[in-house]
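The following record pairs a protein chain with its ligand, 2-acetamido-2-deoxy-beta-D-glucopyranose.
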Amino acid sequence: MFLKYIHHLLIIVFAYSLISLEARNHRRYRFVVKEASYNRLCEKKTILTVNGKFPGPTLKVHKGETIVVDVHNHGKYNISIHWHGVKQPRNPWTDGPEYITQCPIQPGRKFSQKVIFSDEEGTLWWHAHSDWSRATVHGAIIIYPKPGTYYPFPKPRAEVPIILGEWWKEDIMQVLEEFVASGGQPMDSDAYTINGQPGDLYPCSKHDTFKLKVKHGNTYLLRLINTGMNEIHFFAVAKHNLTVVATDASYTKPLTRNYIVIGPGQTMDCLMHANQDPGRYYMAARAYVNSPGIRFDNTTTTATVNYENGLYNPSELPYLPYYNDSSSALDFITSIRSLNSESHPTCAGPNGTRLAASMNNISFVNPKIDILEAYFYNTPGVFGKRFPDYPPLVYNYTADVIPLELLISKRGTQVKVVKYNSNVEVVFQGTNNVGGIDHPMHLHGYSFYVVGRGLGNFDEEKDSSNYNLEDPQHLNTVIVPKNGWAAIRFKADNPDFNFLEIGVWFLHCHFERHITWGMETVFIVRSGRGPKEHVLPPPHDMPPC
Ligand SMILES: *[C@@H]1O[C@H](CO)[C@@H](O)[C@H](O)[C@H]1NC(C)=O
Ligand SMILES: *[C@@H]1O[C@H](CO)[C@@H](O)[C@H](O)[C@H]1NC(C)=O
Ligand SMILES: *[C@@H]1O[C@H](CO)[C@@H](O)[C@H](O)[C@H]1NC(C)=O
Ligand SMILES: *[C@@H]1O[C@H](CO)[C@@H](O)[C@H](O)[C@H]1NC(C)=O
Ligand SMILES: *[C@@H]1O[C@H](CO)[C@@H](O)[C@H](O)[C@H]1NC(C)=O
Ligand SMILES: *[C@@H]1O[C@H](CO)[C@@H](O)[C@H](O)[C@H]1NC(C)=O
Ligand SMILES: *[C@@H]1O[C@H](CO)[C@@H](O)[C@H](O)[C@H]1NC(C)=O
C-alpha cells in the first residue's frame, strides 16, 4: 500500500501566533524614481525625480513611527535612497548609501525600505545616495511630536519646508563625468533654488518664484533644508528675524538672528514672526565660501513672503553676510545650543596630480559589493579594518604652505570597527592641504554631540578641557571650520531609547565633490551579547549586485 511509503516527511506544527500590530500598521509610501521634464532658466530639461516631483514628495510622520517606502526604479540609472538623519536602530539594511549598506537598485527593480524613526523630532530629509543624482532626487521629512505631546514653542500658524537646492543646465551625470575625467573642480551650478525655483534674479524665473503667504501677527515655522551639492549657504528674510528652534531634528535653545548659516545635509527649523507692514518681502540665499581663489556659483536665489492684503512692495534683498565672511558664519554656527542640558586650476591638481580628498591620509574607494553584506556574510576581500585612529603623520595641518609630499594620499577601503557600547569621540581636523575650506561632516545612524570647535590645530590637552558637556549642539551633520577642528561624541548604542545603532554606518563630507574625491570612511559598530544587541535580519528583497 502506498500508505507505507513516504517520500517527504513534512511536520506541521499548529500554533497561534501574533502579528505585531505595529508591523501591520506601517504606513506605506510609493516612490517611483523616473525622469520628468522641467523648465528652468529659459530651458527645458529632463531630470531624475521621485514621482515626477521636484523637489520630491514630503514624508510626514510622528516621532517613533516606522514606515515602509517602496522604491521603484523606473529611471535609467542605478539609484539608492537614504533617509538622512534617521537613526534606523539595528537596521542599517535600508539606510541607503550604495556600496556601503546595499548594492544600488538597478533600473526596473524595486526595494522596499523600512524607515525606523526613534528619537528624531523636527525636520530631516531623504535623498538619492548614488553618484550625484541627489541633485534632483530629494525631499523633506517632517517628524511631528507624538500625538498628545507638543513643540517646546507655541504652535505656529503654519509650517513650510524651505528647500535650498542647486541647479545645473547640464545633465547632472554629465557634470559628474566631466569632473571626474578632468581631475579638477566640478563646473559651477547655474542657479540656486528655493523649493525648486531660482527666483526673480534669474532669467525666465520671476513668474514661478516660491511665495510664502502670511497673515500679519502670526508666527510661521520654516523648515529649512540645504540639499545643495557643493556649498554652505547664508539665508535670510528681509526685515524679519529668524528664531532657530531645532537643528537636524533635535531642539535647540531659541536663537534669534537676522541671518542663518546652513551646510549641505543640515536642517534648521526657524520661527518667523510676521510683524512687518503688510507687503511683500524677499527671502534669499547665497553661498558662503571662505577660500580665496576657489571658483563657485556666486548667484543669489530668492523667494517671497507675501502678506495678506499687502500694499507695501519693497524690493530690497535681505542682509546677507559677504561670501567669505567667516566670522559671521562662525559666530552663528557656534551660537547654537541644544535645548536640554545635555584658485581654480582649469584641469587637475598641482604638479600633474589629480584633486582628491582623504581622511587620515586614505582616499576612500567604493568596493564592488556593499560593506554591510560583506560584513554580515563574512565575505573576505571587500574592505579592510585598518582605518587609523590617528593621522599617520603629525604636521602643522593649518600652515600657510604645505609641502607637496604631504599632499599625496593613499587609496583604500578601510573601515573603523567600534565595540558595542563604546563611547566614541571623533575630532575632525581641517587641513590647508590644497587650500582649506569648511567641511560639513555627516554620520549615518547617529546624532552626535558637538563638544568642541576651534581654529588652528587641535590641542588634545588644552582643547579637551574646554569642551561643552552641558548643552552641546545635537546634530547629524557638523560644519568643521576652515583650518579648524570640531570634536563630536556619541555612544555606540543608545540605551536611553532602547535602541542600538549597531551595524555599518557611513561617515562622509556632505560636499558631493568631496565624496567623489574620497573624503569618507565607514564605522562598523559590532554587536553586543544581549538579545537585542545585534543587527536585524536582512530584508528579503535586498538589491543584488
Ligand atoms: C530682530 O532682533 C533684534 C535683536 O533681538 C531686535 O532688536 C529687532 O527689533 C528684531 N527685528 C524684528 C523685525 O523683529
Ligand atoms: C560672480 O562671479 C562672476 C564670475 O566669476 C563675476 O564676474 C562677478 O563679479 C561675481 N559677482 C559677485 C556679486 O561677486
Ligand atoms: C573677502 O573678499 C574680499 C573681496 O575679494 C576681500 O577684500 C576680503 O579681504 C575678504 N575677506 C576675508 C575675511 O577673507
Ligand atoms: C613637481 O614634480 C617634479 C618631477 O617630479 C619635481 O622635480 C618638482 O620638484 C615638483 N614640484 C613641486 C612644486 O614639488
Ligand atoms: C601653523 O601654521 C599657522 C599658519 O601659518 C601658524 O599661524 C601657526 O603658528 C603654525 N603652528 C605651529 C604649531 O607651528
Ligand atoms: C600618505 O601616504 C602616502 C603613501 O603612503 C605617503 O607618501 C604620505 O607621506 C602620507 N602622507 C601623510 C600626510 O601621512
Ligand atoms: C549598476 O549596479 C550594478 C550592481 O552593482 C553594477 O554591476 C553596474 O555596473 C552598475 N551600473 C552603473 C552604470 O554603474
